[in-house]
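seq as requested:
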Amino acid sequence: MNTYIETYKERLHYALNQAVMDKIPELGSALRKAWQMGRCVYLCGNGGSAGNAVHLANDLLYGAGMKSGLGLRVESLSANPAVLTCLGNDLGYDEIYAQQIRVKGQPGDVLIVLSGSGNSPNVVKALEVGNQLGLITSAILGFSGGKCKDLAQIPLHFSVNDMQIAEDLQLIIGHMCMQWLCEVLGDDAQNAQANSGRLSA
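struct tokens:
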């Protein structure tokens, strides 16, 4: 097993040194603006990526707001099995996220798609609808990036041919954004409070 451990470490290290890491601040800035403007953030994915969408929704709701007192308005579109099975049964599995975005999405909201291949029809459709409705769209991707690479306004594509590494990267990027947001949203909240005090004086 030691060989597998070393190989895994090497693959993850290789991924974390790709140039796409320089684009992560774009996603962080979009999330910060969503917080400042009171917009919503939506996440979705399939399988392990769906689990990561639920995980990161928690991090952005609570962890990102630990210093500001209030995190982001965030929802994992993968979290409600009643909604997913209803839409999958009635409209088709490729519509399970797109239909939710049609109902809930507003211009200026943020949609983050998590996908290994970037070709799953349901996340592709989610990005298409998000773009049509004026959302800020992003995707964290592995392998070739697939169709999502071209659809997302902020594509974070890691050229890795390993699903587990691709899923690890989703959480790593999410955690990087969460920790940074925790700091800057705390500063934003303090500045807003100070400005409010000046206006009322």
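Helices lie at 2-16, 24-37, 48-61, 81-90, 98-104, 121-132, 146-151, 163-200.
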